[in-house]
Amino acid sequence: MPKPVYLNLQAPINQDVAVKVVAAVRTNLKEGMTELHLLMASPGGFIDPGMAIYKFLRAIPVPVSTYNYGSVDSVAGVIYCAGSHRVATPHCKFLIHGITWTFGQPTTVTEHQLREYIGQIEAMKRNIASVLAEATGKGQEDVEADITKSVTLTAEQAVQYGLVHELKTALIPAGVDVVGI
Questions:
Q1: pTM of the complete model
Q2: Do 37 and 5 form a contact (C-beta atoms < 8 A)?
């Protein structure tokens, strides 16, 4: 039976979460999902799995709406941008910030390796800025500047920024099942 589906993503973004999101969406598509509503509260996480979720959601054949009901930070903001309709609660926030690279244990790198890491960081920043610029209508250079300086947006500021289309308190219709990721 065709139906809208509500998924709740309340977790840091990593490869395991990306696999679960894709699996949940694929399963629901097979079961006749007519639209996807992705409820989000995430501190962000790893960029590659986050970008994969974003690209997957943009490629599915049903409308996607995204909802921020807490904090959508870092790469979770990219996933949020997959929504053709983006909603936020009045007291939520968004964090747009620069790229972090974790080396783990003390690591020795060559000059060549360091330049390679910097190249990867710059490419990630451009990709994130491109997604945010497309979603908000802002110039990519402006978004890159915001990424560099780190910007925290309230719900109202996110509307002005172009990230959020609508503010509302009630996000889930009565009687709807919400599936956790």
A1: 0.94
A2: yes
Q: What is the domain-level CATH number for residue 34?
A: 3.90.226.10
Determine the Cα–Cα distance for residues 172 and 32; give it in Å rounded to an integer. 20
Q: Choosing from 37, 42, 97, 165, which is the catalytic residue?
A: 97
Q: Which residue of the set 37, 71, 74, 84 is catalytic? A: 74
Q: Are the C-beta atoms of 181 and 8 separated by less than 8 Å?
A: yes
Domain containing residue 38 = 3-180
DSSP 23: H
Domains held by the chain: number:
1
Determine whether 85 is an active site residue: no
pLDDT in tens, 99-129: 988 877 878 889 998 899 899 999 999 999 9
Helix, strand or coil, per DSSP, at residue 63: coil
